[in-house]
From TrEMBL:
Coiled-coil intervals, chain numbering: none
InterPro entries attached to this UniProt entry: RWD_dom (IPR006575), RWDD3 (IPR038840), UBQ-conjugating_enzyme/RWD (IPR016135)
Gene3D superfamilies, A to Z: Ubiquitin Conjugating Enzyme
GO cellular component: a single term: nucleus
Lineage of the species this protein comes from: Eukaryota, Metazoa, Chordata, Craniata, Vertebrata
Record keywords: Cytoplasm, Nucleus
Name this polypeptide is given: RWD domain-containing protein 3
Subcellular location: Cytoplasm; Nucleus
GO annotation, biological process: cellular response to stress; positive regulation of hypoxia-inducible factor-1alpha signaling pathway; positive regulation of protein sumoylation; regulation of gene expression
Main localisation: cytoplasm
General function of this protein: Enhancer of SUMO conjugation. Increases SUMO conjugation to proteins by promoting the: binding of E1 and E2 enzymes, thioester linkage between SUMO and ube2i/ubc9 and transfer of SUMO to specific target proteins which include hif1a, pias, nfkbia, nr3c1 and top1. Has no effect on ubiquitination.
CDD domains with a match to the protein in the record: RWDD3_C
Domain of life: Eukaryota
Record keyword Cytoplasm present: yes
Amino acid sequence: MSEAAFEEVSVLSSIYCGEGEFQLTQQSAQDGLLVQINSTVGGERGLDVRLLFHLHPCYPSCPPAVSVSSTGLSRTQCHDIRQKLLDRAAALPPEPMVHQLVEWLQQCVEVTENCRGCEEEEEEGREREKEEWTAVLSLDHIRSRSRYTGLLERWTQQLQLSGRLLLGRSILVILQGARPSIKEFCRLLRTVKVDVDSSGKKCKERMMKVLTESPASSPGGRGLQGFVVTNYKSLPELTAAFQEINMTDVYQQIRPSLRD
């Protein structure tokens, strides 16, 4: 080991002289030195971070290896901090650098903590996307019933949705499932030629309307299963169809939009 390395270890033991702050865990001419420094960082949170520096026999001509652990940070965050310290060490001149790296740890943790907040927001967003949603769509017309209903059923299967097609004076599609899947279903309706117009030419469902869209009121106890086509002849029959699947409240929301 170089004299500079031993001098640095001596200085570090003087700087980090609090109880449990510094420990020389290994000293070997063949394997080098293992220095453990326990530091409290992260401002008000006061995170305890343990740094283990492996000073190779050729140190400081080559940067140290670094290990990071903390009970207050996730494994991913510790890995991120370690990589930042290694990158910093590689950018420094070949001279004793452990103290600089320990001081720079504060900045690493602050950046990681900020990222953690972003990650938590992203995770919340992903969880919201997994929530069960209910949507009711209104279709303008169905002329090619076989083709149209076949596509609707196929899309619900592909998107892992449950659905019900209600055919009567108003044509309604009730969907339950993940919100992104419902949005994709709506996109397909507007962009794929699902029906034929009055002249018999294939056409898209440009007149589709989303009457209501909201989180399902009873996750895990969904009223729909698979894809079912139901015909109704009157508003009382339509009301009964919604009651059958425990969606009377949904029916009350869309009732003003329906044709009498």
